[in-house]
């Protein structure tokens, strides 16, 4: 298992970690099969989406923010980040990636993103 | 592959299955790599979230219940549990977990949860 | 890694790819462990749900369409398919499936679906 660290700069942010994941897979020596890209936190997530237009990331974060209000009298969790916990389980804390001949296999337009929902923070991603 | 059984007690519930998953991984003899934690049903799901404050689980189930109404004249499915099928695909029927030196790797605050959306029932979880 | 091609016929559609995934797993020669079923596109997704009543698929696609409006002045992405990108990350671009004695392990009522959110198109699915 390899660990990556990512530092986020705002409450909601998507950071491309594709190159860091490829480096981790190379260091692990995985040549064929699949790897899990996993974040050990409960207020962020991992997803895959388009790697070109930053508007795609803005639209996704904005959608989540409209669907899961940051403040609500209905929230039971007292940490102030109830919405971030909800978003984390909606998006998911991991993705699975196929590895072929040592290379992670992504579509031409795809990148792997850490989704920050309660930043800024330093986050870990585990690959294994 | 190993099977776990979980009995749920209400329509919507999240049950911590982390210890049972660890036991299954130990029995399988997996020491390195990753495992899939999978539920073979279509009205429940598997997720990872915080293992301390029960408010986090209540907030997640409440969010899903507001976002996906239990009753709607628009539903085509006649089983009475259309909402549970929708929630199942929104959350997902599996998670992938890294295994290192025989241990499932979770963050300090993380647990693996079976999410029941159409209980009470007895549910299976498969690990492999 | 094996590739499957699927041709979709409408903007939103769910297509059962379970048999094609089983064939790919057989060709790969995977006998035990798990495989990743992954789509390399950013406006479709992979999910698992009920394989009997087509109403279940209609309800899921309708829910997503109500939750993520196709047209919105708020969207930043100019491709006209901002909603499809959002749905892709909400549902996820892959599922993990356990393989036991060469067989993909699904529940009796489960099928693996490609979810088209910006069709009609020809889509790839990768198994590895």
What would your notes on this structure say?
The structure is a homotrimer of 128-residue chains. By secondary structure, chain A is of the alpha+beta class. Chain A has a single domain, classed as Jelly Rolls, CATH 2.60.120. Chain A is 27% helix and 36% strand. Chain A is built from 3 helices and 8 strands. A 5-stranded antiparallel beta sheet of chain A has the order 1-8-3-5-6, covered by helices on one side. In chain A, strand 5 and strand 6 form a beta hairpin. The longest helix of chain A is centred in the middle third of the chain and has 14 residues, at 54-67. Chain A is globular, with a radius of gyration of 15 Å. The mean pLDDT of chain A is 98. Chain B binds chain C through residues 1, 34-36, 38-42, 67-68, 74-79, 82, 85-86, 88-90, 92-94, 96, 124, 126-128, and chain C through 32-34, 47-50, 53-56, 58-60, 62-63, 67, 90-92, 95-100, 105-110.
